[in-house]
């Protein structure tokens, strides 16, 4: 089954995104805690794009597609902003975040800990980030 | 949507969070904590019993105060987190940096 959502690059779209994700995952075989975490991971990637790649420009859009199969859930997030390669970004350690009083950097740590696989590609001006969660029996 | 309520109990400042904290509203949480600090608070309990969701934007707000609070001898505790939200603190290891209690009574008594 596939679910699709297009949303504008503004942080006020994040609550709509969460509601969409919860609805799309209502029937999948993940626990409530796992669904909550997967929602968080997808939101973190989208919030990063909204703020850092699109400067919260409401005229830009992010496209999200969810594909589920018997084994896994795939969240495909695509945009045409400044490419942010989550795979090569080195997440700061917690101590550094604390000492430097940074309010950012934590999101990527969460995404990498929550999702089982992450893919990124940038082609012809379109960036695609795939977050994959396997169903563990 | 995020709503905050402040109260004082036995010289402890209680900041209760209702709803969801994300990148659209984490500044409200930041301002509320800053106000408590500016007002001379020495002991703060953040009550998350009605907190349904928190993203890294909100967690980052807590993180950004830890060093200052250590230097100034301000105590910050968190209590009442639902299992879902508590798990997010644990994933990041924030439960090792901020004392987390089951409820307000336990946080006040410690």
Descriptive overview:
Chain B: This is Anti-sigma factor antagonist. Chain B: Pfam families: STAS. The complex is a heterodimer of chains A (137) and B (110). Chain A is globular, with a radius of gyration of 15 Å. Chain A has one domain: Heat Shock Protein 90, CATH 3.30.565.10. Chain A is α+β, with helices and mostly antiparallel strands. Chain A is built from 4 helices and 5 strands. Chain B is α/β, with parallel strands linked by helices and 110 residues long. A 5-stranded mixed sheet of chain B has the order 1-2-3-4-5. In chain B, β2, α1 and β3 form a beta-alpha-beta unit. The model of chain B has no long low-confidence stretch (mean pLDDT 96).
Please summarize the sheet with the most strands of chain A: 5 strands, antiparallel
User: How many structural domains does the protein architecture of chain B include?
Assistant: 1
Strand content of chain A: 25-35%
**Dominant shape of chain B:** globular
Mean pLDDT of chain A: 92
What's the count of strands of chain A? 5
Q: Give Rg of chain A in angstroms.
A: 15 Å
Note the overall shape of chain A: globular
CATH classification, class level of chain A: Alpha Beta
According to CATH, the fold-level topology of chain A is Heat Shock Protein 90
- What amount of the residues of chain B lies in strands? 25-35%
- The first-to-last residue Cα distance of chain B is 31 Å
CATH superfamily (homologous) name of chain A: Histidine kinase-like ATPase, C-terminal domain
The order of strands across the largest sheet of chain A is: 1-2-3-5-4
Biggest β-sheet of chain B: count, sense, barrel? 5 strands, mixed
The averaged pLDDT of chain B comes out at 96
Structural class of chain B, please? Answer: alpha/beta
In the CATH hierarchy, the architecture of chain A is 2-Layer Sandwich
- Just give the CATH class of chain B: Alpha Beta
The name CATH uses for the topology of chain B is: Transcription Regulator spoIIAA
Keywords (chain A): Kinase, Serine/threonine-protein kinase, Transferase
Domain Histidine kinase/HSP90-like ATPase (chain A): 11-133
InterPro entries (chain A): Anti-sigma-factor_SerPK, HATPase_C_sf, HATPase_dom
GO molecular function (chain A): protein serine/threonine kinase activity
């Amino acid at each position: 089954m596939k679910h699709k959502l297009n949303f504008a690059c503004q942080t006020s779209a994040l609550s709509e995104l969460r509601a969409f994700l919860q609805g799309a995952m209502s029937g999948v075989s993940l626990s409530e805690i796992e669904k909550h975490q997967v929602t968080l991971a997808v939101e973190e990637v989208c919030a990063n794009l909204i703020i850092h790649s699109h400067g919260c420009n409401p005229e830009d859009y992010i496209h999200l597609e969810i594909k589920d199969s018997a084994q896994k859930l795939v969240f495909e997030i695509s945009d045409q902003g400044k490419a942010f390669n989550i795979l090569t970004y080195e997440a700061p350690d917690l101590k550094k975040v604390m000492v430097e009083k940074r309010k950012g950097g934590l999101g990527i740590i969460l995404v990498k800990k929550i999702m089982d696989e992450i893919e990124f590609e940038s082609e012809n001006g379109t960036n695609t980030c795939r977050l994959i969660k396997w169903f563990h029996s | 949507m995020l709503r905050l309520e402040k109260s004082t109990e036995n010289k402890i400042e209680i900041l209760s969070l209702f709803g969801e904290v994300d990148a659209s509203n984490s500044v409200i949480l930041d301002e509320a904590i800053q106000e408590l600090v500016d007002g001379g608070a020495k002991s703060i309990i953040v009550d998350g019993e009605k907190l349904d969701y928190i993203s890294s934007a909100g967690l980052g707000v807590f993180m950004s105060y830890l060093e200052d609070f250590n230097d100034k001898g301000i105590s910050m505790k968190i209590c009442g987190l639902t299992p879902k939200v508590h798990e997010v603190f644990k994933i990041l290891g924030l439960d090792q940096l901020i004392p987390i209690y089951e409820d307000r009574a336990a946080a006040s008594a410690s």
